[in-house]
């Protein structure tokens, strides 16, 4: 079975978009990518990486960024596996910008993420499959 796990992003001044379905065309300087580290099998773990590269020539500060990733029913978030780095520096208190409700992971909640111009933000987390 092939799993397609998309991620949705909303931020001030722009329409929400889906990373795997919608091209990011109206946010100058921003590119977003989501990858998995390998194929997924029962009893295994998978690491997802979401990269927000805000380093284009015309990049600007992005405010109130919310990244929502809803896991498929067969997947379970691996507790304490989420990390966020900004230009390689870890966000020290991830609980301020990350929460889980059911199968939905939210990066930018309860406190919104700010993605500065000329920076790269990388989010990683693991899931397991029963």
Describe the structure.
By secondary structure, the protein is mainly β. Helix content is 0%, strand content 50%. The model has no long low-confidence stretch (mean pLDDT 80). A hairpin with a 2-residue loop joins β1 and β2. It has strands at residues 8-11, 14-18, 31-36, 45-54, 62-70, 75-77, 83-86, 89-90, 98-101, 104-107, 113-115, 119-129. The strands form two sheets. Strands 1, 2, 5, 9, 10 and 11 form a six-stranded antiparallel β-sheet that branches. Strands 3, 4, 6, 7, 8 and 12 form a six-stranded antiparallel β-sheet that branches.
Our estimate of the beta-strand percent is over 45%
Taken in chain order, the helices and strands follow as EEEEEEEEEEEE
Distance between the termini: 14 Å
Radius of gyration: 14 Å
Number of helices: 0
Tags for this entry?
single chain; six-stranded antiparallel β-sheet
């Amino acid at each position: 079975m092939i799993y397609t796990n998309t991620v949705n992003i909303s931020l001030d001044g722009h329409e929400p978009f889906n990373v795997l379905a919608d091209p990011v065309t109206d946010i100058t300087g921003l590119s977003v990518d989501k990858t998995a580290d390998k194929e997924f099998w029962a009893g295994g773990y998978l690491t997802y990486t979401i990269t927000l590269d805000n380093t284009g020539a015309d990049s600007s500060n992005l405010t109130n960024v919310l990244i929502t990733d809803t896991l498929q029913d067969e997947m379970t978030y691996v507790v304490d596996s989420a990390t966020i780095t900004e230009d390689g520096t870890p966000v020290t208190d991830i609980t301020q910008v990350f929460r889980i409700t059911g199968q939905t992971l939210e990066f930018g909640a309860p406190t919104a993420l700010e993605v500065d111009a000329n920076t790269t933000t990388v989010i990683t987390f693991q899931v397991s499959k029963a």
